[in-house]
């Protein structure tokens, strides 16, 4: 038991570092994109920035605070939980609504099917949120309830499409890069953006799966199973953080590496 607790503590420290990286991308990279986009009058940048700030930053921070207090057996007063968790999910939904319409306008402009998908996904987000709040389930801050699942399925549908479109575009650009008809960095950013969004889509079900996985187990089982859940969710969060950082705010050393690799392939 002592060894298991020590392992869990060390994993918790690693998870804490990963969480800080996640929030750094949300607020720092998102803030830079938002400011640059507003100054340049470029809506694609500031929409992406606002999405990161609201969904990955404010929304995640608030919902994490409320749900964690419940899962660890020290829940906040129901009124506080309702406001914190309700506001957190609202912020998340605003960010996701922005990004799904960004995806539609950038990758599938004028396509009726894309508009329908974006509309249905957005409706699920907000209908689920409204039901979650009005029913009072939000004051329990648990990963359960019909309206909660409607909202979460809307989140998954949104994040999945945000992952799908850049990855599809990357496959097209990759062929053009080989022919010298597209910039390697643009293709690289599509790949990073898609992979990060795919990891983030997987995190949508992290809370409910962890709860279902841990419920009804003894202390030793909960610790060992919890360690597995913690490793998986931490790695997914880290993948999201690193890929988004490299895609939206790449350091010079990374840019030089991409350019050198492209030059070597074309030589």
- Sequence stretches where pLDDT stays below 50 over 5 or more residues: 1-5
The portion of residues assigned to helices is over 70%
CATH class descriptor name: Mainly Alpha
Mean pLDDT across all residues, rounded? 86
C-alpha termini separation? 57 Å
Radius of gyration: 20 Å
Counting DSSP E segments of at least 2 residues, the number of strands comes to 0
Number of helices in the DSSP assignment:
9
User: What is the overall silhouette?
Assistant: globular
CATH topology descriptor: Rhopdopsin 7-helix transmembrane proteins
Description:
The N and C termini lie far apart (57 Å). Helix 3 runs antiparallel to helix 4 (112-134). This protein has one domain: Up-down Bundle (Rhopdopsin 7-helix transmembrane proteins), CATH 1.20.1070. The chain has 267 residues and is an all-alpha fold. It is globular. The chain has 9 helices and no strands.
Short recap of the structure:
The chain is an all-alpha fold. It has nine helices and no strands.
């Amino acid at each position: 038991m002592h060894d298991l607790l020590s392992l869990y503590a060390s994993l918790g420290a690693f998870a804490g570092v990963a969480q800080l990286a996640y929030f750094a991308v949300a607020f720092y990279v998102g803030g830079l994109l938002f400011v640059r986009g507003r100054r340049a009058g470029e809506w694609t940048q500031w929409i992406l920035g606002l999405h990161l700030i609201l969904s990955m930053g404010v929304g995640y921070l608030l919902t994490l605070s409320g749900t964690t207090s419940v899962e660890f057996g020290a829940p906040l007063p129901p009124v506080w939980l309702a406001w914190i968790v309700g506001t957190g999910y609202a912020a998340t939904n605003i960010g996701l609504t922005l990004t799904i319409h960004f995806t539609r306008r950038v990758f599938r402009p004028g396509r009726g099917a894309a508009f329908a998908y974006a509309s249905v996904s957005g409706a699920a987000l907000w209908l689920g949120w409204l039901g979650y709040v009005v029913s009072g389930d939000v004051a329990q801050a648990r990963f359960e309830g019909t309206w909660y699942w409607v909202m979460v399925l809307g989140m998954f549908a949104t994040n999945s499409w945000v992952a799908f479109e850049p990855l599809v575009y990357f496959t097209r650009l990759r062929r053009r890069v080989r022919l010298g008809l597209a910039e390697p960095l643009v293709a690289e950013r599509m790949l990073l953006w898609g992979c990060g969004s795919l990891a983030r889509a997987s995190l949508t079900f992290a809370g409910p799966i962890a709860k279902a996985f841990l419920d009804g187990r003894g202390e030793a089982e909960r610790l060992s199973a919890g360690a597995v859940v913690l490793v998986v969710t931490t790695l997914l969060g880290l993948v999201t953080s690193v890929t988004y950082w490299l895609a939206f705010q790449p350091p010079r050393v990374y840019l030089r590496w991409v350019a050198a690799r492209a030059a070597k392939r074309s030589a």
